[in-house]
Amino acid sequence: MSSPEISTMCGSSVPNMPEFDAPFRQNLEDLFAWRRDVRRFRADPVAPELLDRLLDLACLAPSVGNSQPWRFVLVQEPDRRAGVIEVFERCNQAALESYGDEKAGLYAKLKLSGLREAPVHLAVFAEDDPAAGHGLGRRTMPETLRYSAVLAVHTLWLAARAEGLGVGWVSILDPAEVATALETPEGWSFIAYLCIGYPVEEHRDPELERHGWQARQLLCRKVLSR
Q: How far is residue 107's CA from residue 211's CA, in Å, rounded to a whole number?
């Protein structure tokens, strides 16, 4: 197998400060509310230039010490995708067996990935010791590098939603096995495996809530005053 395509380049610009008016703020709130974890995708391809734009926007995420530790792997080869699907199916079966009868029955009915349908597979890693940033801000909390990569995932997720695309975060995976399947460099930590494509359906409520797995808490904020 040839090495997977790896992208670390990010565009940047310094525009004049825009005005974020009330209509924009309402649209932004709608974007947050309509972001979904998508598992059902149409077969329509995603234009390469659109994917490049999403990656550029993901690179606008904040990062500790301006380290920009995110590393993207576009998984295109069928045998590599098959390897990731095999890891998912094995981990998914183990998760199913970990639940009691009542929860296991519901778990078995859930669609937990769009790995076979999504036109784009994107793996996200964090470089453990990037040269950028010169170690600023992470001496006592090195995990902030991984947090930074998660922020890049969230930025990409919202940008994709604004373009009418859906994103599904597949977390039922063994990180070491995914890294092996993709032959990523030493010193890269696995963060996320994303399925990207045009959704079959649109829902404002999360799928896990819709199918009775977990209701959304009415008050999710937990704030302590000290």
A: 10
Which tokens go with 148?
């930074």
DSSP 8-state symbol, 18: P
- Looking at the domain assignment, is residue 221 inside a domain? no
Here the tokens at position 217 are 């808490």
Alpha-carbon gap, residue 7 to 55, rounded angstroms = 9
> How many domains does one find in the chain?
1
Tokens of 204: 């404002």
Name residues whose C-beta falls within 8 Å of residue 104's C-beta, 6 or more positions apart in sequence.
Answer: 96, 97
CATH number where 147 lies: 3.40.109.10
**What integer pLDDT is reported at residue 55 of this predicted model?**
98
- 50-54, 153-157, 204-208: segment of lowest average pLDDT: 204-208
The reply to whether 225 falls in a domain is: no
Residue 161 is part of which domain span? 37-200
